[in-house]
Amino acid sequence: MNELPPGATADDDAPPPPWEQCFGHANWKYRKFGFDELEARLAKAPPTSPLFRQHVDKLVEYLKDSNAGAQDSATKLCLTFLSRVEATKTGGILAEHAEGIGNALVNLGFGARPGTKKLAMSCIVEFGGCGLGDQAMKSVISIGFNHKLPKVVEPAVEVCTQALQTYGPRVFAPAPILKGLKPLFDHKDGKVRKAVLSLVGEVYRWMGQAVKTILPELRDAQMAELDTMFQSTEFGSAKPEKFPRYM
């Protein structure tokens, strides 16, 4: 008999299902158990393991779990998947699923509990290691930058900074990111505006004054604020912390 997930109960005449059959269970504790078990196996599996191909088209469904605890486990599972799956320059088995996964991470994960939000942001960054950095950014820009809730917009901007710090502009192209920032310079939420300035400062670290060629059209006062920030920002010292796994 399979061991029950923590906190779950089962009738004496109904043994718990194998972990492989828990993903669609009505009880969220069983679903969480299934996600945790799969995550543990992927963490030890070789990048070409059949487990990756068997579950790549189900990640979006897992990420949409309605229970916060199960969603957190599903997001951790997604991060391990992205960190371990075989990477290629064109994205490998993830390529055709990147948009759906990215959309779910931004739309649901960025507004979730703090721990889940952090995992979701790490997932977006890790798309860079899979050769799908720009594809992930499309979800961040189209959904995150335009979201009605500041608590989703702020991490959407912050994750762009994290992505550039981690993999650099060759993996995450800054031009479309900065273009999408235009309405956020005047965002009603101060935390969002602060995150925007930090992001532009990070791009400056990589590009120097050339950043001005890809900035959206700004008011004179906004440009003056950026110029002041640029004067205290060191250009030329930025180096990627990691490289895509296919390199």
Describe the overall structure.
With 247 residues, this protein is mostly helical. Helix content is 55%, strand content 0%. It contains eleven helices and no strands. The chain has helices spanning 28-44, 50-55, 59-63, 68-84, 98-109, 114-126, 133-144, 150-167, 174-180, 190-207, 220-231. The chain is globular.
Major β-sheet profile: none
Task: Classify the secondary structure makeup into a structural class.
Answer: mainly alpha
| Through-space gap between termini | 44 Å
- Average pLDDT confidence is 93
Could you tell me the number of beta strands?
0
Query: What is the 3D shape?
Result: globular
SSE arrangement, N to C: HHHHHHHHHHH
What Rg, in angstroms, do the CA atoms define? 20 Å
Percentage of helical residues? Answer: 55-70%
Strand content: under 5%
Sequence stretches where pLDDT stays below 50 over 5 or more residues: none
Number of helices: 11
What's the short version?
It contains 11 helices and no strands. It has helices at 28-44, 50-55, 59-63, 68-84, 98-109, 114-126, 133-144, 150-167, 174-180, 190-207, 220-231. The longest helix has 18 residues, at 150-167.
Entry keywords:
mainly alpha; 247 residues
Write the layout of secondary structure elements.
Layout (H helix, E strand, L loop, with lengths): L27 H17 L5 H6 L3 H5 L4 H17 L13 H12 L4 H13 L6 H12 L5 H18 L6 H7 L9 H18 L12 H12 L16
